[in-house]
């Protein structure tokens, strides 16, 4: 197997994935428009380039990019020289973009797989991400070596191109709704004199529990850390995209749409650079040391 892989996007997630692949024995080259991100990758032993065009024709590529638009402009560059076998897009992208790029890659004898991931930077650094995979069977086979290295086999093939994007967006909007509802519930507990951490632990062992109540609030909100590495801007984007893809098929999810409105309001109040766990400052300010954002 040719173990040359390009990683495009060396931020919190992409940088960690590049290091994981390097540690697993892959020959990794990376690109990011940020010199700071490139320097951090180089310090970890990753060879970097200052132009994504220098990575064209690399047998395997992993994308970790900020939007579907950037994915759409990057993939044709990577395919501009022969040699690419498979492109694995871990971006939380849009289904239509992935379907179009899958066709483009296939026309050039390559595979494109949408494989948005869950597990955060810790999962990326430890090779234990979960991936939501959309691809043809042939494309999945071509991309399997990379998927195995990044997830340890923890991925689900959900259907054809774009399917991974659909399910990842649904996952994220469900998490977004849960971050709102758990915050409100723990605020009620506190108002009744119950320690929110104890309430979260009790709920997490019962039918109302979730990763949000078991891990996110205890680790990042109740401690005041707010250092998950995932931004408010990205979560608000994903929530809005989930409602958008619902509307594209005539679905109008009222509860999820209401949760999305709370996230857009939080984005306006806190800014895109805030940690996504700071949603608690707008839905349950009594749980945070910072309190509600200034009006």
TrEMBL record:
<dbReference type="InterPro" id="IPR036291">
    <property type="entry name" value="NAD(P)-bd_dom_sf"/>
</dbReference>
<dbReference type="GO" id="GO:0016616">
    <property type="term" value="F:oxidoreductase activity, acting on the CH-OH group of donors, NAD or NADP as acceptor"/>
</dbReference>
<keyword id="KW-0560">Oxidoreductase</keyword>
<protein>
    <recommendedName>
        <fullName>6-phosphogluconate dehydrogenase</fullName>
    </recommendedName>
</protein>
<dbReference type="InterPro" id="IPR008927">
    <property type="entry name" value="6-PGluconate_DH-like_C_sf"/>
</dbReference>
<comment type="similarity">
    <text>Belongs to the HIBADH-related family.</text>
</comment>
<feature type="domain" description="6-phosphogluconate dehydrogenase NADP-binding">
    <location>
        <begin position="5"/>
        <end position="151"/>
    </location>
</feature>
<dbReference type="GO" id="GO:0051287">
    <property type="term" value="F:NAD binding"/>
</dbReference>
<dbReference type="Pfam" id="PF03446">
    <property type="entry name" value="NAD_binding_2"/>
</dbReference>
<feature type="active site">
    <location>
        <position position="168"/>
    </location>
</feature>
<dbReference type="Pfam" id="PF14833">
    <property type="entry name" value="NAD_binding_11"/>
</dbReference>
<dbReference type="GO" id="GO:0050661">
    <property type="term" value="F:NADP binding"/>
</dbReference>
<feature type="domain" description="3-hydroxyisobutyrate dehydrogenase-like NAD-binding">
    <location>
        <begin position="162"/>
        <end position="282"/>
    </location>
</feature>
<dbReference type="InterPro" id="IPR006115">
    <property type="entry name" value="6PGDH_NADP-bd"/>
</dbReference>
<dbReference type="InterPro" id="IPR013328">
    <property type="entry name" value="6PGD_dom2"/>
</dbReference>
<dbReference type="InterPro" id="IPR029154">
    <property type="entry name" value="HIBADH-like_NADP-bd"/>
</dbReference>
<dbReference type="InterPro" id="IPR015815">
    <property type="entry name" value="HIBADH-related"/>
</dbReference>
<keyword id="KW-0520">NAD</keyword>
